[in-house]
Amino acid sequence: MDTLVKNLDKKLNTWEPGISEVVREYLKEIIELADQNALDLLKSRPGNRLRWRS
Length: 54
What we know:
By secondary structure, the protein is mainly α. 67% of the residues lie in helices and 0% in strands.
């Protein structure tokens, strides 16, 4: 298993449930866009920045 995936699995089990759910939703969207070769759309959409970062 990839190191990133192992780390994500560990983190998802330690974060608060609400945070884990937000991360899961972001990742689902990223995977869908990657499958469509459309990740550039993610950058261009307003309001897509992670809100918990300053």
